[in-house]
From TrEMBL:
Region feature (Disordered): 120-147
Organism lineage string: Bacteria, Bacillati, Bacillota, Clostridia, Eubacteriales
SUPFAM superfamilies: 4Fe-4S ferredoxins
Biased segments, Pro residues type: 124-133
Listed Pfam families: Fer4_7
Domain 4Fe-4S ferredoxin-type: 35-64, 72-101
PROSITE patterns in UniProt: 4FE4S_FER_1, 4FE4S_FER_2
Origin species: Thermobrachium celere DSM 8682
Record InterPro entries: 4Fe4S_Fe-S-bd, 4Fe4S_Fe_S_CS, NADH_quinone_OxRdtase_chainI
Keyword 4Fe-4S carried by entry: yes
Name the UniProt record assigns to this protein: Carbon monoxide-induced hydrogenase iron-sulfur protein CooX
Amino acid sequence: MKFPYLKEAVKSLFSKPSTENFPKEVKEAPEGYRGKIVFHPDKCVNCGMCIRVCAPGAITRTIEKVEDGDKVTFQFYLGQCTFCQLCQDFCPRKAIELTKEYLMIAENEEDLMVRGTFIKKAPPKPPVPPVQPKPVAQNDQPKEENK
Ligand code: SF4
Ligand code: SF4
């Protein structure tokens, strides 16, 4: 009686598994991997370019008036994102970064939201020019009465 796989089975008993020991050992993603988005609100200038290039509409922005300017909030919904990286490539301030993070386990929509808020200060108001006294027209001069 022949056991064609016996040699292979015995060998496998004493060798390491060929599968990865995940999640005990989490491997780093390769260079250039496009994973979870990180937004740096301190670098953003609110130009809106990222919103324009995002085909699936995964980026939204809300603007709220506050005392010293606008409170701007950017929201990236990773459930809608295709990780194309266009937003990162087109951002003139490098405010968006696609990281190597690939573990994005979500229990609800909120777990897939990346947000960042900053205050865009209103430009200083130009000084109000002093009010010039209105020139008095010649005809408006009080006429001397003939005595
Ligand atoms: S990676 Fe692509 S799909 Fe995702 S937010 Fe950026 S532009 Fe949109
Ligand atoms: S492209 Fe960059 S700087 Fe412009 S709004 Fe988007 S994140 Fe901000």
